[in-house]
């Protein structure tokens, strides 16, 4: 988004469809829905929206490739049952995996789960919104843990650092979740919220829940921060504890952010899952039309898998829904890349 629209313009520009359509439980209503009255049956919606980010990806030692960095579309709405209960639904498909040809040097949303050429259902969920908090039943959903704690360093188009970015993954936290049962408290203390979730990543291992996660977040005015803890108990990783801390501050023209992650594999401290990672980011609105982001992240993985990255992107904003970008990334132990393209939201 452009600088004149809000103090959080650069960070909001980089929001994907899941943050606009599928993540903030009380913010479903996009501009179309905000303008329409609640129907006689108490239904607001369905609202349709999406984002297409297409361009060219150039990875070292690989041919240049036309690439869909994002290709999402979906619907959402809210049923107003009564003053104390609203039921929200979201269904969003991600077509990037069906468009791109992924190999060991690249990644695309959905490739961690779907075979090459298959459409990935990014969001499929129902939320019960009550005076006592929100209750989520979410077979597929973008990770709220990632979005609320790591969002200040997740400002790039291709080089996003999370655990599902293939060879270039810096952090252990995934960006996409499945089989998520969650609870979010009402906001308290001027901007605090508690969220807890359990996930089933393997339905055949004799235990109903494989991941337990909780976080405390704050987002009010120019300051946002979060601290969270995740425990993973599943075949291959039986007792992994991950603690994450993220913070960001918006100075208006400039936004600063950072995150620290500690992965404690209590079963095998010498394995690849036991490591620390951290990242910092500076974003700036240079004018109404131009914005930039620069980030650095690193980890100290065992077994020679350590890595660090420097990433920068420049965006030219035609309007609040359309921008062009150029992005470059240098990695210490994996392939560097250069990307460029156009983003259109609708």
- In the predicted model, the low-confidence regions spanning at least 5 consecutive residues are 1-9, 14-37
Q: How many discrete structural domains?
A: 1
Judged by helices, strands and strand pairing, the structural class is mainly beta
Count of DSSP-assigned helices = 5
Do you know the CATH topology? Porin
State the order of secondary-structure elements, H for helix, E for strand: HHHEEEHEEHEEEEEEEEEEE
User: What CATH architecture label applies?
Assistant: Beta Barrel
Computed CA radius of gyration, to the nearest angstrom: 20 Å
Specify the CATH class. Answer: Mainly Beta
Beta strand count: 16
Mean pLDDT: 89
Read across the widest sheet, the strand sequence of neighbours is: 1-2-3-4-5-6-7-8-9-10-11-12-13-14-15-16
Terminal CA distance: 14 Å
Shape: globular
Helix content: under 10%
The CATH superfamily is identified as: Porin
Major sheet size, sense and barrel closure? 16 strands, antiparallel, barrel
Share of residues in strands: over 45%
Care to describe what's here?
Helix content is 8%, strand content 53%. Strand 15 (322-331) and strand 16 form a beta hairpin. The chain has a single domain (9-345), classed as Porin (Beta Barrel). The chain has 346 residues and is mainly beta. A 16-stranded antiparallel β-barrel has the order 1-2-3-4-5-6-7-8-9-10-11-12-13-14-15-16. The protein is built from five helices and 16 strands. It has helices spanning 9-13, 17-23, 31-35, 96-99, 144-150; strands at 43-59, 65-82, 85-94, 120-130, 133-142, 176-184, 192-199, 211-220, 223-234, 237-250, 254-265, 275-285, 290-299, 307-319, 322-331, 337-345.
């Amino acid at each position: 988004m452009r600088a004149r629209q809000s103090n959080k313009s650069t960070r909001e520009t980089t929001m994907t469809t899941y943050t606009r359509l599928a993540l903030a439980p009380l913010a479903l209503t996009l501009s179309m829905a905000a303008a329409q009255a609640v129907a006689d049956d108490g239904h607001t919606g369905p609202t349709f929206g999406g984002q297409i980010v297409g361009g060219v990806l150039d990875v070292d030692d690989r041919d240049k490739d036309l690439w869909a960095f994002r290709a999402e579309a979906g619907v959402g709405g809210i049923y107003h049952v009564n003053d104390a209960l609203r039921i929200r639904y979201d269904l969003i498909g991600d077509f990037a995996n069906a468009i791109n040809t992924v190999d060991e040097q690249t990644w695309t949303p959905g490739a961690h789960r779907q075979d090459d050429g298959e459409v990935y259902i990014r969001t499929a969920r129902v939320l019960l919104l009550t005076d006592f908090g929100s209750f989520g039943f979410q077979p597929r959903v973008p990770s709220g843990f990632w979005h609320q704690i790591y969002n200040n360093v997740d400002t790039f188009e291709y080089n996003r650092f999370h655990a599902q970015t293939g060879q270039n993954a810096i952090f252990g936290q995934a960006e996409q979740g499945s089989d998520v049962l969650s609870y979010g408290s009402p906001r308290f203390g001027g901007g605090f919220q508690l969220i807890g979730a359990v996930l089933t990543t393997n339905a055949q291992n004799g235990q109903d829940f494989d991941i337990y996660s909780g976080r405390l977040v704050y987002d009010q005015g120019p300051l946002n921060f979060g601290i969270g803890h995740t425990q993973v108990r599943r075949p291959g990783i039986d007792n992994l504890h991950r603690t994450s801390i993220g913070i960001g501050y918006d100075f208006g023209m400039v936004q600063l952010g950072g995150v620290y992650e500690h992965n404690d594999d209590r079963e095998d401290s010498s394995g690849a899952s036991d490591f620390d990672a951290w990242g910092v980011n500076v974003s700036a609105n240079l004018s109404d039309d131009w914005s930039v982001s620069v980030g650095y992240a690193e980890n100290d993985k065992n077994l020679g898998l350590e890595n660090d990255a420097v990433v920068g992107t420049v965006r030219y904003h035609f309007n609040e829904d359309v921008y062009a970008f150029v992005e470059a990334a240098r990695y210490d132990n994996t392939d560097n890349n250069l990307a460029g393209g156009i983003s259109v939201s609708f």
